[in-house]
Amino acid sequence: MKPITWFAPGWAFLCGAVASGALSWSLETMGRLFLGLLMAGPILCGLSQIINDYCDREVDAINEPQRLIPAGVVSLQHVQITAVFLTLLGCGLSLLLGTEVAFYVGIGLLFAVAYSMKPIRAKRNGWIGNALVSFSYEGLAWLAGHVTFAVLSWPSALLALFYSLGAHGIMTVNDFKSIDGDRHMGIRSIPVIYGKQRAAILVVIKMTLAQLMVIGLLFFLGKTIAAGVVLLLLLCQIWPYNQFLRDPEHNAVFFNGTAIALFVWGMLASAIGLAW
Fold first, then answer.
1. CB-CB contact of 97 with 32 (8 Å)
2. How many CB atoms lie within 10 A of CB 58?
3. What pLDDT, in 10s, does the model give residues 117-147?
4. CA pair distance 199, 26, nearest whole angstrom
5. What is the pLDDT of residue 187?
6. Model pTM?
7. How many C-beta atoms surround the C-beta of residue 73 within 10 A?
8. Which sign, positive or negative, has the C-alpha torsion 58, 64, 65, 67?
9. How many domains does the chain have?
């Protein structure tokens, strides 16, 4: 279930909750926030990872044979039972948090299946597959976080959209490590389609445009301090951008820990600015 991947949807859920302006330190509010983070991260993100690993077991046998399924550490029946359990648990928690939350969860589950499973298997196309993941991990999680506590506002929905577009670039960074296996299995990821250098340029363009749109929206709303913070964080990404463009395959980990980390802090800054 790859705990490191839980952060993205959990953080987006938190940002959506903050953007709602309805968070408080009350026991009820903190309880709902905890359940939402549990749902978005370990349960639903974990579920999406299980579905992906199950459907990717042949690709992983080439790219990463040490993973649990190709290595034979877990059986396919074990995977299937775990997936059913997490689906029921995630849907149950979403209904507990509200019908609107359950609606976004339902869309996310459809995206997870469409991304990995045949006959759709959207991940075979880097543009479509990455869009499903980025809108699930960022946009839908942000929207679910907001509606858990308040009625969705159009500025919050736009922020969710903009950060989803930026996350599309972030998803591409993860594809650099599996170019050979993806090419062998006919998966047309962005690096496979365009090559390493042009794919890296697309990553930088998408992340930058997304943050510029966020800055523009915040300025339009009169949230100048938040806009300034996001702008400063964007300027701090220039050096990591340059290092990544020089050698995207070998600097991907560095890029994750610098530019992407700054992008993520910008999400929270914009959510705080919107709420206050």
1. yes
2. 12
3. 988 989 889 999 999 999 999 999 999 999 9
4. 46
5. 81
6. 0.94
7. 10
8. negative
9. 1
